Amino acid sequence: MNEALAGKKVLIPRLYEDKEESSLLIKELGGIPIYVELIKVITTKELEKLDEIVKNNLKYDWIVFTSKTGVRIFCDLIKKYKVNVENVKFAAVGPSTAEEAKKHGIKISFIPSKFTTKNLAEEIPDIKNKRILLIRSSNASEEAKEILYKRGALVEEIRPYTIENQEIKNLNQDFDVIILTSPSIVRAISNIESIREKLKNAIVCCIGPVTAMEAKKLNIKVDLIADEYTFKGLLNKLIMWMNNARY
Fold first, then answer.
1. What pLDDT score was predicted for residue 16?
2. pLDDT (0 to 100) of residue 173
3. Please, are residues 35 and 19 in contact by the beta-carbon 8 Å criterion?
4. How far apart are CA 131 and CA 186, in angstroms?
5. What is the dihedral of CA 185, 65, 71, 101, to 10 degrees?
6. Contact criterion met (CB below 8 Å) for 183 and 160
7. Spatial distance between the Cα atoms of 34 and 238, rounded to a whole number of angstroms
8. Which of 27, 52, 90, 167 is the most buried (most CB within 10 A)?
9. Cα separations (Å) of 229 from 59, 91, 116, 238, 247?
10. Residue 82: partners with Cβ closer than 8 Å, 6 or more residues away
11. Helix 231-245 vs helix 19-28: angle between axes, to the nearest 10 degrees?
12. Is the separation of the CB atoms in 95 and 207 below 8 Å?
C-alpha cells in the first residue's frame, strides 16, 4: 500500500493549516503532493461575540463543531481565558473534526452515522430544551440550525469565520489526481480556467456527497466519492479505484 500512488501528481487545494498533514499522507503512498492555497480563513465580527461567550463562561449543554477551523478558533479562546469545559458536551461532524478537537484536549461525545451537518443535526441525542452553541462558517447553509430548532433545541449560532478565495490566475503544473474536500474549494477551482481544463484528464476525488453535489452543479466531473468522509477515507477510495482501473 505504501506505493499505491507511486509517481502520481496529486493536487491538494486545501487550507494552509491542512497542508502538512495532507502532503505527508500522499508522500507515504508514493505520490507527489502539489499544494495550492485556493481558499483562506478570514475571521468575522462574530468572533468578538464568541470571545465574549467564552470569556463569560459557557452556559451550554452542547457545543457543536462542523469543521476543524471552528475547533481551532474555539480552542484558541478557551486557552486564552483558561476556561474549564468539563461540564459541556461536544459534538463533531466527523472523525477529522473530532481528531482536531482531541489535539486540543476536547473530548467529543457525539459523531453522526454519516459525516454531514444534516445527519449531525438529525441524530445528536438529548437536545430538547437544551442549549446548543453551533459554531459555523458564514458560508454555511441554515439547514443544521433549522433541524435543531425543529427538534426543540435552544440554538445559538455563531459564525466567527468565513472562507474566501485566493487570487490565482493560472496553475502551470500538470496533475493526475485532484482532491476536493469542501464545496468552498469546488467553487474556487471552478473560477480557474487552467485547473478546469486539466480536470478532463485527471481523477477527480470528492470527500463526500455534499462536495460532489457542488461539483456536479458547476459541471465538474466526479470520478469517485469517499465512503468515509475524511481525507484518509478519500485516499483509501482512490487506491481502490486505481486498483480496479488497472484490470
1. 83
2. 84
3. yes
4. 34
5. -120
6. no
7. 16
8. 90
9. 31, 16, 8, 13, 26
10. none
11. 30
12. no
Q: What are the residues whose beta carbons fall under 8 Å from the beta carbon of 201, sequence distance 6 or more? A: none
Identity of residue 180:
L
- Chunk the chain into consecutive blocks of 10 residues (it has 247) and report each block's average pLDDT, rounded to whole numbers: 84 88 93 91 96 91 95 96 93 91 95 92 97 94 95 97 80 90 90 88 92 93 91 93 72
The beta-carbon contacts of 148-152 under 8 Å, at least 24 apart in sequence, are 148/121, 148/124, 151/121, 151/122, 151/127, 152/127, 152/128
Residue 247 pLDDT: 40
Q: What is the CA radius of gyration of the chain?
A: 19
Task: Extract the C-alpha cell encoding 37.
Answer: 492555497
Q: Which of 29, 34, 32, 97 is nearest to 240 (CA)?
A: 29
Task: Tell me which DSSP letter residue 18 carries.
Answer: G
Strands 39-43 and 154-165 come out as antiparallel
Domains of the chain, first to last: 9-38+167-245 (3.40.50.10090), 42-163 (3.40.50.10090)
pTM (two decimals): 0.82
Q: Which residues have CB under 8 Å from 41's CB, separation 6+?
A: 15, 17, 69, 161, 162, 163
Residue type, 191: N
- Burial class of residue 193 in the structure, from the number of CB atoms within 10 Å of its CB (0-12 exposed, 13-18 middle, 19+ buried): exposed
- Residue 159's φ and ψ, nearest 5 degrees, are -120, 80
